[in-house]
Structure to design on (323 residues):
């Protein structure tokens, strides 16, 4: 970089090295009809997806329409609170607002009979032992803390079942 | 659950960024803190305010920081009838590109006409209104005000 030529008034003055530029978005999120139903069902510890009438895929959380076929999804499908780890991430980076100690594992979990994996925490297993195809089950929070949020599930843990056949989840990785 | 109940929730996403300024942009903010304004001389001799690190036409490194005036001319403007949080003023104001005396480009900043859009005009003269406390930030300029108001 070329040497900077300063006007006399800036010579010998302590230079600004950095500026604070906080970014903030403050808004009201509206869940919509399909997602509101999904969230309200979570208050009763139920995981409810929607099936596409055209391709039969089951979406969870449901968005009220099939993104592939472009048709409304109205049939509600209750899903088990267990599934298969399709992919996962070991979080090693600390950041503001982090709620649990690193390292920990976030995973995409394909609930049984669903066609879209959900994102959740894996616990009760050393992070280094989490793997694709691992069978997991939900651990719900105490009843007093259950509400219309996916955080009503505290985390997923190994269910003890044998690993899933890769053929059952390879299209969802 | 009541059928048709639509859930809403407040969402706040916030990132506490700090950006390093480098010697060129750093000079601009340092000057603001000291109570004056600088630009940089471009490859064609034009004075660019705020200063660019690289020439916008030739991409070559620029290096000659020059002081410009603290008053100038409104090149163009847009009226903000309903200011939102985080903007420089909490009453209606104009965002304006202001060509300071001695500069060849426009600096974007707020012009306070006391909330009166009829006092805004292209070509009007404005002058800087410094913030009470200056720390080396664009907000060290609280706003610009019409020169006639002095």
């Amino acid at each position: 970089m070329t040497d900077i030529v300063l006007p006399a008034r800036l010579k010998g003055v302590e230079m600004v090295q950095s500026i604070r530029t906080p970014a903030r978005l403050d808004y009201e999120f509206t869940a919509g009809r399909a997602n509101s139903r999904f969230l309200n069902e979570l208050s009763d510890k139920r995981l409810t997806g929607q099936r596409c009438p055209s391709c039969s895929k089951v979406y969870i959380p449901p968005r009220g329409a099939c993104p592939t076929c472009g048709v409304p999804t109205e049939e509600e499908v209750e899903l088990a609170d267990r599934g298969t780890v399709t992919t996962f991430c070991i979080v090693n980076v600390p950041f503001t607002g982090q709620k649990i100690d690193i390292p920990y594992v976030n995973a995409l979990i394909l609930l049984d009979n669903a066609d879209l994996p959900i994102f959740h925490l894996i616990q009760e297993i050393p992070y280094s032992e989490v793997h694709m195809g691992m069978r997991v089950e939900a651990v719900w929070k105490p009843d007093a803390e259950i509400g219309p949020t996916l955080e009503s599930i505290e985390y997923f843990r190994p269910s003890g079942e044998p690993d899933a056949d890769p053929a059952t989840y390879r299209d969802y990785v | 659950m009541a059928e048709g109940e639509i859930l809403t929730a407040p969402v706040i996403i916030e990132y506490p960024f700090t950006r390093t300024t480098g010697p060129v942009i750093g000079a601009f903010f340092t000057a603001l803190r000291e109570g004056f304004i600088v630009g940089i001389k471009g490859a064609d001799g034009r004075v660019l305010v705020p200063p660019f690190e690289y020439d916008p036409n030739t991409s070559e490194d620029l290096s000659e920081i020059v002081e410009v005036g603290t008053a100038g001319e409104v090149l163009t403007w847009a009226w903000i009838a309903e200011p939102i949080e985080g903007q420089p003023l909490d009453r209606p104001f104009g965002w304006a590109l202001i060509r300071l005396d001695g500069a060849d480009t426009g600096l974007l900043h707020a012009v306070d006409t006391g909330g009166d859009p009829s006092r805004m005009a292209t070509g009007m003269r404005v002058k800087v209104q410094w913030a009470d406390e200056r720390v080396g930030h664009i907000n060290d300029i609280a706003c610009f005000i019409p020169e006639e108001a002095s």
User: Anything to note?
Assistant: The longest helix of chain A spans residues 32-42. Chain A has two domains: 30-79, 80-173. The CA atoms of residues 38 and 48 of chain A lie 6 Å apart. Chain A has a mean pLDDT of 94.
